[in-house]
Amino acid sequence: MTAAESDPDPARLEPPWWTPRKSGARRSLSRETIVAAAVRILRAEGVDGVSMRRVAAELGTGPASLYAHVANKDELLELLFDEVVGEVPLPEPDPARWREQITRLWTDGHEALSRNGDIARVILGRVPMGPNAMRMSEFTLTLLRGAGIPDQAAAWAIDVVGMYVSASAIENAVTVDLAREGRDPEQYYGMVCRFFASLPPEEFPATTSLGDALGRGSREERFAFGLDVILRGLAALVPADRADRPGERP
Amino acid sequence: MTAAESDPDPARLEPPWWTPRKSGARRSLSRETIVAAAVRILRAEGVDGVSMRRVAAELGTGPASLYAHVANKDELLELLFDEVVGEVPLPEPDPARWREQITRLWTDGHEALSRNGDIARVILGRVPMGPNAMRMSEFTLTLLRGAGIPDQAAAWAIDVVGMYVSASAIENAVTVDLAREGRDPEQYYGMVCRFFASLPPEEFPATTSLGDALGRGSREERFAFGLDVILRGLAALVPADRADRPGERP
DNA sequence: TTCGCCAGTAGAACAGTGTTCGTTAACGAA
DNA sequence: TTCGTTAACGAACACTGTTCTACTGGCGAA
């Protein structure tokens, strides 16, 4: 069960431009069953596999039937994204452990996205406003402010972290995709590294000499590094007189 | 003129899986004219506008003709991406001013991408390996190492910065898109802010009280903030005994 | 100068896409 | 029971990337 389903009054949380559930749904189809079918396809075939026809076929009907429950494919993808974000568990915020909690939360988010094909593609360029995404933002904002990061910086930081997590999840999805197609991702990255190493050293001294380092590390390690860099940078924005007392409100 | 065109021997720099220029091109079409036509469409209509048929029509021919010069649409998009990256001027690296130079370089890159529709979409999930992208990576690597950042961190940092810049450029492109469609982006973001403010304060205290800060700032300001956070985090990785002497090699 | 080759150019077609239109059929309310 | 609303759906439209096939037209060799 997702957070959205367990919410007592989810309607209040939805952006007003998501088409409201039409009253008196009568038969087999519903927004929930459509999203559930789409998630199954998403995990198996990625975003490109999620076509209106494919989802309809999964439900034993035609594509036109879906349009009674979902405005268009864009809206379906947004619903799909929020469904995936709903997989991330939210603990109780504890400002004293803000960096640890934020790291955990967004690492979980990164994994949830990575588990579900390249779903992260659909959110780049829009503001995530589904109920589950909103709860995640709220949680992060609370922790950042509690840590003493100025309001404006905290507000912008959400965007920065979100972009990094989404972009990295897309990168991961491609690796998973290669594996699904039977091609070894290691082999692909090996090819890339060999290309770097083969560049003319006169023009690319740094790239050729670093060759190995560029491809080293698991996806998890590389993601953790970037997230740590960002949080380090954010921590540097805490005013000196707050740095040692996280959690206090001024 | 792009960097690629002015390069004395660009062939050596191209990844070996880009299809080689077929020898003895005879008539009007060429890889260059195709990419140029695609760039025009890209600027006017975004990546979605760049279809093989549309590009062919721009050149007064049919889609099949393009396949003699370009392996497939993916390759055309990669060529397109590198063409855009070629718009970024590379200065002489000066390790003493590494943060300033990196900020400048990637801000220029961000602007070049933002000027050209949502071209950044095509690079997410792959490693940019066109000649212009490679030169940009080399430049950044040189500066980061010169600044005293450990090799492994420098190698991974390229990815982090690249992901952030691409994701942010996509965000910008959507704003530009809205403007092109005649819809006011300000109005869209105003709508988003109003939605945030309208959430139930009991469940979303931070989001509702921050409402304004979440939407404040120009695209440039917001991008600059994130880049600064990342560079701040990277600077924190410089070993203490190197922090005051950028540019020296150990 | 002539001939033959073949790279480059396309027209047509295939299988797929998102979306809309018009019709059918089933349910809730009266 | 009847009526009106509305979910469901088949067919169609205008697209997409890509491939097959035929057909040029210019160059190198004779």
Structure description:
The structure is a homodimer of 250-residue chains. In chain A, 58% of the residues lie in helices and 0% in strands. The first copy, chain A, has 250 residues and is mostly helical. The first copy, chain A, has two domains: 3-85, Homeodomain-like (Arc Repressor Mutant, subunit A, Orthogonal Bundle), CATH 1.10.10; 95-242, Tetracycline Repressor, domain 2 (Orthogonal Bundle), CATH 1.10.357.10. In chain A, α6 (131-146) crosses α7 (151-180), α7 (151-180) runs antiparallel to α10 and α8 (185-197) packs antiparallel against α9 (205-215). The longest helix of chain A is centred in the middle third of the chain and has 30 residues, at 151-180. Chains A and B meet through α6, α7, α9 and α10 of A and α6, α7, α9 and α10 of B. The structure holds a DNA duplex (30 and 30 nucleotides). Chains A, B: Residues 51-70 bind DNA. Chains A, B: InterPro entries: Homeodomain-like_sf, HTH-type_TetR-like_transc_reg, HTH_TetR, Repressor_TetR_C, Tet_transcr_reg_TetR, Tet_transcr_reg_TetR-rel_C_sf.
What order do the helices and strands come in, and which of them pair?
Two copies of one chain form a homodimer.
Chain A: H1 3-6, H2 31-45, H3 52-58, H4 73-85, H5 98-115, H6 131-146, H7 151-180, H8 185-197, H9 205-215, H10 219-235
Chain B binds a DNA duplex (30 and 30 nucleotides) through helix 3.
